Amino acid sequence: MRIALVVLAAAFATLPALACEMMQYRRVQATPHVHVFEAAEGTTAVVNGNIVAIIGRDAVMVVDTGQFPGIARRVVSDLKALTSAPVRYVVNTHWHGDHILANSVFKQAWPQAKVIAHPHTIERAAALYTDYARRTPERLAQAVEGMRKRRSTSASEDEKLWLDRTLACVDAAREEIPATEYTPPDTPFTGDMTIDLGGISAAVRHLGPGNTPGDLVVWVAGDRLVASGDMIVAPVPYAIGSDLEPWIGTLGALAALDAAVLVPGHGPVMREASYLRDVHALIKGTHAQLAAMKARGVAREDAAAELDTAAFREKHVTTPMRRQAFEQFFVRAAIAQAYPAPAPSAPASGPRSAPPPAR
What does the pLDDT read at residue 1? Predict the structure, then answer.
């Protein structure tokens, strides 16, 4: 389960201890045409993605909508104060709930808006989030019970802090569930489309598989800005369910845009490419090491101890929350993808499945 958090210390320092920073955001003007509604640092198991608004003279494009209706309504109010131009386009960069579950709030505010997504995103989201408000409370309760048991037996102060902050955010997120009504994308898209918003154009592109097979990015050539979705996440990348091998080439295509401004799916607006280069090197190195381990017969349970990610850790994994997030969202996730568990045998009554909770 990944419903994320921690602290952008300066921006959120006024919140009380163990309050859920993820229920806050700050508005950052990234370029003359682009405003980012920047979520807090996504290092708990409860996260909300950045929401991006590209504002033209005639229309607005919103990139991702977050997962919490309460936050989305505040963003809608902020947008209406910024411009009288309507939101005509919403782009869902990928299927994770923290980027897509608040679509309904934007559609209610601007019913004519087209919601654009890759077919993979549409398929996965429909399977996971249809009837979300009814199905999530039970799954969330089970996850909370597991975290509390883990907290009671943990000998790690880092892990205890991570669990405490996650549980604080679960309590805040639980209040949002009854109002969450999933609205699916209505405009499938797979290639390269440029939309004139009036005085500025935005290009929606599928550069290739990244964090998910259906990742989209939005390139604003006039401002040399790219909104990457979870292709890039800071301060530590997410790799849950991600295929690292094609992601390497797709990150190369992202870097080739030579953006002056990069807006990640989580994390602060970036104005130079060093973090992108570090993530590219991390994913390339991790993939190569895991492939070599498998070829040598290294067991899955020994892979984490052998995996060398020191260069990235020294620069970016600098707090207890980041250490936990890096281990859980990247290291363990990458190993799980490289060493997939065998599929369980179907029970006599036939296969049964339940979608996981939203991130």
Answer: 43
Mean pLDDT of the region 32-59: 96
Determine phi and psi for 351, rounding to 5 degrees: -70, 145
Give the 3-state DSSP-derived string for 9-69, with helices as H, strands as E and coil as C: HHHHCCCCCCCCHHHCEEEEEEECCEEEEEECCCCCCCCCCCEEEEECCCCEEEECCCCCH
- At 30, phi and psi to the nearest 5? -75, -40
Q: Kindly report the average pLDDT of the chain as a whole number.
A: 90
Q: Which two tokens stand for residue 31?
A: 């370029």
From 141, 200, 196, select the one nearest 174 (Cα to Cα): 141
**Residue 56 near residue 195 (C-beta atoms within 8 A):** no
Give the separation between CA 127 and CA 224, rounded to whole angstroms.
35
pLDDT at residue 345 above 50?
no
DSSP 155-182: --HHHHHHHHHHHHHHHHHHTTGGG---
Measure the CA–CA gap between 309 and 181, rounded to whole angstroms: 40
Among the listed ranges 55-59, 130-134, 338-342, which one has the minimum average pLDDT value?
Answer: 338-342
Question: Which pLDDT score, from 0 to 100, does residue 343 have?
Answer: 55
DSSP string, 238-260: --TT--HHHHHHHHHHHHHT--S
Provide the 10 A C-beta neighbour count for residue 317. Answer: 20
The tokens describing 310, both together, are 């020191």
Measured at the CA of 22, the angle between CA 19 and CA 27, to 5 degrees, comes to 120
Q: Which residues pair with 36 in a beta bridge?
A: 28, 52
pTM for the structure as a whole: 0.90
Joined tokens for residue 325: 């997030």
Helix (H, G, I), strand (E, B) or coil at 88: strand
Q: What crossing angle do the helices spanning 274-296 and 244-256 adopt, rounded to 10°? A: 160
> Minimal CA–CA distance to 137: which of 179, 168, 82, 174?
174
Closest CA to 67 of 26, 22, 109, 27: 22
